[in-house]
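If you are new to this repository, start here. Below is one unmodified record pulled from the training split, so you can see the exact layout before writing a loader.
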Amino acid sequence: MLIAFKFVFFLICAASVMSLSESWLPPFPRAVFRAALVGVAVLVLFYTDIMAPIRRTAEWVKKIRLGETPENLPSKERRLLGPLVKEVSKMVRSLETARLAAEEEARLRQSKDSVWTPERLKEFVRTKLGGRPLFVVSNREPYMHVKKGRDIEWMVPPSGLVTAIEPILEACGGTWIAQGAGDADRETVDEKDRLRVPPEDPKYTLRRVWLTPEEEEGYYYGFSNEGIWPLCHIAHTRPVFREKNWTYYQSVNEKFAEVVLQEIDGMEDPCVLIQDYHFALLPRLVKARRPDARVAIFWHIPWPNPESFGICPWQKELLIGMLGADIIGFHTQYHCNNFMETVDRFLESRIDYEHFTVNREGQITSVKPFPISISFIGNESSSSAEKVTSSKEDLLKPYGLSAEWIGVGVDRLDYTKGILERFFAIERFLKKNPNYQGKFTFVELAAPSRSLIPQYRQFADQIDKEVERINSLFQTKNWKPILFLKKNHSHKDILPFYKHADVCLVTSLHDGMNLVAKEFVMARDDEKGVLILSQFTGASRELKDAIVVNPYDIGQTADAIREALEMPLEERAERMKRMRAVLRERNVYRWAADLMGELAQVRLSSAVVS
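And here is the target side for that same chain:
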């Protein structure tokens, strides 16, 4: 548009000059003069508005190629080159990522370190699987498409599982099989319900599975989240088991099994990695039809003791389904112990506690801990390396608030996350330490969750009431103790709070791992900030330099907040440095390598699971 405006302006000026020339030039020289004038105008425009931006873009790419870090490409070049700049930007990001990875690999080789990177995982899996693709199954899809007016946009659903699994498929390739839940999902797949993702830089295939509203109600909201979820978390919420929900759970597992079998059809010794409690029956269903498949299931939530699990009317069916897998993975050894004891209590089988295997009807299943993590590879990561230009003051300014210290919590609105207990601790902290009133604000970034389930609706209402009550006790015109932001927050929304928070509270009443704790540590490349962490998370077994608390002990958590805010800067830095070292050593690529290495070494039984 700007070029066109300039060209019209030049033509108007040229027309004025040519009208003057009619009085002193004969016709032929006048025509030559006009042509020369237009030609000069075109050349000037071409050089200043086309060639110069292209030259600057070339210099920009050259700096990247030489390993320099250039400034962002000016908006003028972006407007002119349009889609070309978009693709060049993707290429530049890929080059920058590859350069950083290569530098990290070289540094690790020089230091004889063993940190896992995407490139190392890719080569490891290629060698172990012989080039065969990996098949991942989960309820939650990594990308969903939604309608925004007449447009279709994609989004990443809030999920710790997606955070953990996607880096693996991006590194290794393969197929992710999941429920299509977006209102525009059907419009973006091909005739076989597949599409390549990520949308901006495709690296693997997403195969969507369609469920009816009745199936989703019974299988997901009903049996999975009113039954298995509270059963496994032991958070004093009574599990609800209905026979119709169990019927839907069976039928959906069978539907997913058919899709898995379609995807692995014709492949020799395929590797299938099943995710979480939604698919306890799936390992056996796949193995019965494809005994040559190597199947693993990773259970992302805790496993309870046998007495608690015995509440479920279909405990034997769930266990038999899971034992169709060659490998069952949990976050901690404690959960493995509980599972083995549960099998011993309810099923006829041969249990080897020395090697942690279960032999049932010739099918041998290994039960092992694989503590999951995030994609942290060094002093910089894909998340922490992102620039955050805002300040601590900027975070609260849109809400008309100011505070000297900020705390942060990032959770789904779930009764297992200890959000109420956290707020009670903040109330206790401010009462015991009135000098922090008007100076400390806790920001809770809460994603609505499972609102169709009555317990979740009641819990969300209770949270709202407690936030209002606590704020009414303390708040002033420009300050309040709790800023409660209830919506689905993107990583871009969350990162500034991770970067600037003085303290992060993770107070789960019971949790498998909890990746929020690890994401906070990953974001703090400034080695500042303090993590307060529940003893009932898997993360507390790794991040020992956090302040570990019992979230049921409100006074202890309140004292931990004061300890965190008053901790000397040197101690904060040392603690954060050690926690970051743990994450660097045990990142998600190491988790995937451990799990895939075990799966590749499985000695397949000749017995057919029936």
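Two things worth knowing about this chain: Residues 471 and 480 are 6 Å apart (CA to CA). The longest helix spans residues 27-65.
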